[in-house]
Amino acid sequence: MNRICLIILSLCIYALTTSAQNDRDYIRRGNRLMRDTVEIQKQSEKAIIQYRKAVDHNPNNPIAHYNLACAQLRKGNPQEAINEFQKAARLEKDPKRLSDIFHNMGLILYLDKQYDKAVAAYRECLRRDPDNNESRYNYLMAMYMLKKNPPQHDQQKQDKDNKQQQQDKNQKDRQKQQQPKQDKDKQNPEDQKPRPRPDQMSRENAEQLLKAVMQNEKNTQQKVQRSQQNRPERHLHKQW
Fold first, then answer.
1. Are 97 and 106 in contact (CB under 8 A)?
2. pTM of the model
3. Which of 30, 36, 205, 239 might form a disulfide with 70, Cβ 3.0–4.6 angstroms?
């Protein structure tokens, strides 16, 4: 009887120990599969299965979510990768690892031409690791492309403002034509000068700010000028 109890106790201890290590074991198995550079698609699919098992066992493990994101990206699933990177970012506390997460997210968003979100991701990356020159270069590239390609809602707002501005100008022109000549002579010349709109001033300030940043980063600016295809540094931080 005592022998049976001892066997049962040993099995329980073994089960608890195995359960406590399962998520780490799955991550290690996934990492081994991700090292394969020959059958990338096949091995990435197997790695995804292992990382998902790790996530199922411990949903609060940021390493499992991060490595699952890397595997999804390697397999060609960028949106699934973004989802897992976001989960990892909510759980991770280490600044360097958070920097890796936001760097990878920024590159995915940049290549998807979501420049506003890429800028935000790289900004978060640099908050955690200000000395990351690669991320700083990509951040400036994303800022440059965002300036050239504003989001659609911003473009619609600009078109609406331009249309309203043109309507205001046409209305003023009609009023001037209807005024007697002496009234025109009495008008203050200062009133004839076009006044800058608030949105134009903020845009000018933004451009000045961007120029100042790029001036302070001389080495980075030279790389931007040499880059004719507006490509970021396509280096993803690998799995942990």
1. no
2. 0.61
3. 239
Report the phi/psi class of residue 235: left, alpha or beta, with left for phi > 0 and alpha for psi in -120 to 50. beta
Interhelix angle 133-148/95-111, nearest 10 degrees: 30
How many of the other CB atoms lie within 10 Å of CB of 28?
A: 13
- Output the CA angle 63-116-214, nearest 5 degrees: 100
Distance, in Å, from the CA atom of 94 to the CA atom of 100, rounded to the nearest integer, reads 10
Does residue 7 have a pLDDT over 50? Answer: no
- 8 Å CB contact between 126 and 136: yes
% the chain with pLDDT above 70 = 61
Residue whose pair of structure tokens reads 């490595």 in the numeric block: 67
Give the span between the Cα atoms of 55 and 27, in whole angstroms.
9
Q: From the DSSP assignment, how many helices (H) and strands (E) are in the chain?
A: 11, 0
**Roughly what angle, to the nearest 10 degrees, separates helices 198-216 and 218-226?**
100
Sign for the CA dihedral angle at 89, 91, 95, 97 comes to negative
